[in-house]
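Reviewer 2 asked us to include a model.

Predict the structure of this chain.
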Amino acid sequence: MIQLYFTFPWWIRHSVTYDRYLFRNSVKDIIPEKIRLRKDKCGLVIPEALVLFYKEKDNIRKFLLSVLSDKDINKIIDIEKMIKWLDTLKMDKILKNKMYPAFNIYLNVIIWMKYNKNVWIKYI
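Predicted model (structure tokens):
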């Protein structure tokens, strides 16, 4: 499914005004517009996942450092900024930090990119 998602042009996947653009369009005429276009949700963040994330911070840093030298990934995602962002995620604030889900999404994309380079490299 992820491979299929990345085959779509960027203007189908993303919008300046709405997150989850592809998903929102896929449920058009299925759910009420008032619900479909809501902007007050930030996704589900499970406290246990945050604790695990915090415990794995050093391993996440090591992983990011391992892709820092990959020029192709760095053309798309600034790994140095990801490392700085990781440093800002503190445990005492992490439950209130709405940026954790966004960081996690980028991290998952980077992991996918590292291990599936043959799929996406032809598009850059």
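Residues 1-41 form one domain. The radius of gyration is 16 Å. We have added this to the supplementary material.
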